[in-house]
Amino acid sequence: MAIETPEGYAAFDEASLIEHLAGDAVLRGRLGGAPASWKVSEVGDGNLNLVFIVEGPSGDVCVKQALPYVRLVGEGWPLPLERAFFEYRATTLHSEHVPGRMPEILHYDPRLYAIVMERLSPHVIMRRGMIDGIVYEKFADHVTDYLAATLFHTSDLFMKAADKKAAVATFCGNTELCKITEDLIFTDPYVISSNNRWTSPQLDEDARAVREDTELKRAVARLKHQFLCKSEALLHGDMHTGSIMITPDDTRIIDPEFAFFGPIAFDVGKLIGNLLLAFFSQSGHEKVAGERDDYRAWILRTVEEVWNGFERKFVALWTSRGEGDAWPAAFFEGEDGRRSLELAQRAFMRALFEDALGFAGCSMIRRTLGLAHNIDMEWIEDPDRRAACERQNLAMAKELIKQAAGFADIAAVTARARG
Asked: pLDDT for 73-112, tens place per residue?
């Protein structure tokens, strides 16, 4: 049975996309030439949407259109088209706080649930670059600018309560994509679910051990509760190396369609978890044992720089621009007030750190035992080698979830990963 869609909506094909773009004078001028000369390529490799690159004599654009179902699964898993609006709105809001770290939005069509944005070139998906062993020395600085600025400026530390509540209300409608996260990250890997898959039979016992670990499930349930209840800031919601396009000199954050107001630690933790998973995948990509040792070291250094840079920049923003209704500035005047605020900030960031480690662990487990896996592991052809990497990843993930309080700092996390 076909999925019902709103009047006026139709998924693009090459002809209808060209007609759509040609109907907008600004976009037509950007592409240049006659529409018949434009080249259209469907390049989407994600789980949810259509993505096109359109090239003309004068320029190019990227077009992303929501489909009314999960592309990875098909029409058996319907999904609201409105997620395109949330991506458009999140990109617009986040870009106000950190210009140049997301694609420029050129046009949004609410009838077709389509976003036209700048084409990022010669950028590549960061996950693919990491599989190829490319070092991105500027990445940590760039991404922590984004994380600190977006998470601070959309929180009660900066926003007035009424403005924050209105913003929360806008994004409350993104329930279906939140539900995907709630199920795929915080529920399915810990129960028997038709959504789950893993490297079998190699990880059969590992999957069973996760399902039977009551301490682990208790800790995950606490984190799920945080995800459901903490509306701290406007999150990207799907912050991983597949949502980053990059060159050695530039970093852009893409695909915030999972955006909602949630716990600050989630975005930070999900990114750290994906970096750690990439670290554990490295031996599976080696042709000669040890040839990726330097790259492993860079990944762990990046993990440290991501947390340390985020913490430093977030606290600096709080200290200099803490104008929101939370933590009133009048409480912290004078030298005693300054010291008191520093104590509060340290406690806040420590709690955020522990939650981020837990969210990192949940992300690492879902990418090993859940529905959607990362190509970091999936592209390791030998299942025994892949399972060995995944087993290390699972062991680390469980420690991050169950023993987050035992890690003194991010250096202790990378030391544990290093072994």
From this structure: 777 888 999 999 999 999 999 999 999 999 999 999 999 9
Q: pTM for the full model?
A: 0.96
Residue 124 β-bridge partners: 246
Alpha-carbon gap, residue 137 to 139, rounded angstroms: 6
Tokens of 262: 């949630």
All CATH 3.30.200.20 domain ranges in the chain, comma separated: 14-118
Q: Which CATH superfamily is domain 124-418 in?
A: Aminoglycoside phosphotransferase (APH), C-terminal lobe (3.90.1200.10)
* Structure tokens, 146: 């984004």
The answer to whether residues 244 and 254 touch, using CB atoms and an 8 Å cutoff, is yes
**Residue that the structure tokens 């999972």 belong to:** 258
What is the three-state SS of 120-132?
CCCCEEHHHHHHC
Alpha-carbon distance of 235 to 256, in angstroms, equals 8
Give the span between the Cα atoms of 401 and 362, in whole angstroms: 7
What is the distance between the alpha carbons of residues 405 and 20, in angstroms, rounded to a whole number?
A: 53
